[in-house]
Amino acid sequence: MSLLNIKNLSVRFGDANAVPVVDGLDIEVNEGEVLAIVGESGSGKSVTMMALMGLIEAPGIVKADQLQFDGHDMLSLKGKQRRKIVGKDLSMVFQDPMTALNPSFTVGYQIEEVLQQHLGLKGKAARARALQLLERVEIPAAASRLDAYPHQLSGGMSQRVAIAMAIAAEPKLLIADEPTTALDVTIQAQIMELLLDLQREQNMALVLITHDLAVVAETAQRVCVMYAGQAVELGHVPMLFDSPKHPYTEALLKAIPEHSLGAKRLATLPGIVPGRFDRPHGCLLSPRCPYAQADCKAQRPDLVPHAHGAVRCFYPLNLNSEVA
Amino acid sequence: MLSFIARRLGLLIPTFFGVTLLTFALIRMIPGDPVEVMMGERRVDPAMHAEALHRLGLDKPLYTQYFDYIGNLAQGDLGESLRTRESVWHEFTTLFPATLELSLAALLFAGTLGLIAGVIAALKRGSLFDHGVMGISLAGYSMPIFWWGLLLIMFFSVWLGWTPVSGRIDLLYDIEPRTGFMLIDTLLSDEEGAFVSALRHLILPAVVLGTIPLAVIARMTRSAMLEVLREDYVRTARAKGLSPARVVFIHGLRNALIPVLTVFGLQIGALLAGAVLTETIFSWPGIGKWLIESIGARDYPVVQNGILLIACLVILVNFIVDILYGLANPRIRHQR
């Protein structure tokens, strides 16, 4: 049985008729697996994971046929029961480390808080473990950083602290929501490497939300491509990179600068993600899709499984070029 | 931190001179002099008038008077009251505990109630409670203190008879002033019912004096809380699986307190100004009432030095608040 099993998840803000930000999403993550969720801004990547964590607040409405994590139904779990899982078996690292840490408390305090909450560690034992964690996330002079305040740390250092906090209770699933977006390039690679090291070492599952397809290619086993709140393609690495089935996936790959070497302009998909007022009746990508046919604009396609994944398109690409 | 304290202390000197100059000039701009006031309605013989002024040293040129005043201050001599012949310092220290007791009670009232109301209003944003608290606090802030005091006296003291109209304690008790705080002195004394009486006397003036600070603190707490609860680190705290109480009070309120503390400090100055009115309305024997009476009597030394002492107090309190601010906000503490 898979560790995380989400079926038909939808998240809306406002009333039940509001346009869904996440629309009928299915996601499955196995133990120890790395799943990447990619898609442009506003496609619902972060909101999906926030819904799982229970971080969607009113007026947000979360609905799903199934929202199962490690045998628990996260939708029906309330209050205390839910908090026993969130932060312990299921934890999250956020995008902007400079604002994700509380400015009024020391780094040590914020890590020890998790240890006390979930493992019952207090005093010296908690402090010793917090120090170990800081050392594990490769913070130099870790002992002296325990008493540092977040404003005294750099962005990369803060993200390491946030990671230490997230892995403090040895989670089964770590969600990293664009963990390197706010950092500069040299630090990005280090943080990704750290996350993957930890993932392998603790055999935890990792959901990596990212824009960076190069990172996906190097790290993930499976990929979920999201567009306007829907999964448009699911697939394994490297098949998905070699032969993308969905026009949107193909467009994303084409937009990688390395793929446009020698060209004058970067290959891009014209237009923007549909908003609440211009959501198409048919396929959500149809207004921007270079391959769109008449029925694409009339009807919305379903996510249809194929040999190595699934694709939400009436006219998937590369189906015949499939080798393996 | 040390250079910060030194800088603040350095600022004290010009402030100090400014206050002496202002009070010295202002009290002399009011028509009339101490002798006239003492003589009252009776006709004053000009020769006697001049003789009395000479005895008080008030016939000298103003600048001489000012330099004498500063010279005495430099020697730590605050002079004596023209009316009572008591030293100003002695009168001040006798009356100040009453004002301090009233102000602390008002702050306690405003601080606790303001924080609680502000936090609940922020958590239940847009609810009836939120609108209610904000509406009432706007009304409270706009209410003139003397009018509000009279309303409360009329309602609670006159109509309902719940609280006494004025003073610090019933006349039938004779409490030996040990600390100057009536609540503590009555507890130390063995007079039965004295403590309750002192408490009943304290409630209404404390509520009146605390109303404006209460309104300000409640509104400030609400807006600071709303801002803080949207912060990323509050989301992080929730993602850690912490209890809602911990998220709100430890991670939220701790940060929301920083701006509230600033406002709190500013309110202490306002509180002493409000004490003048409140003490007069409730015949509370503190420095506010003392100053009002001294101004009426043109008691120059008392007015000058009483105000100077209050100014020093406000400066001291703001100084303490600045240091507290550094304690509450690590980002300030570590600045050099």
TrEMBL record, chain A:
It is found in: Cell inner membrane. It is a peripheral membrane protein. GO terms for molecular function: ATP binding; ATP hydrolysis activity. It is an enzyme of class 7 (translocase). It catalyses: a dipeptide(out) + ATP + H2O = a dipeptide(in) + ADP + phosphate + H(+). Pfam families: ABC_tran, oligo_HPY. One of its GO terms (cellular component) is plasma membrane. Keywords: ATP-binding, Cell membrane, Membrane, Nucleotide-binding, Transport. The keyword Chaperone does not apply. The keyword Transport applies. Its EC number is 7.4.2.9. One of its GO terms (biological process) is peptide transport. Part of the ABC transporter DppABCDF involved in the uptake of various di/tripeptides. Is also involved in the uptake of phaseolotoxin, a toxic tripeptide inhibiting the enzyme ornithine carbamoyltransferase. Responsible for energy coupling to the transport system. The complex is composed of two ATP-binding proteins (DppD and DppF), two transmembrane proteins (DppB and DppC) and a solute-binding protein (DppA1-A5). Five orthologous SBPs (DppA1-A5) are present in P.aeruginosa, which increases the substrate specificity of the DppBCDF transporter. Belongs to the ABC transporter superfamily. This is ABC-type dipeptide transporter. The gene is dppD.
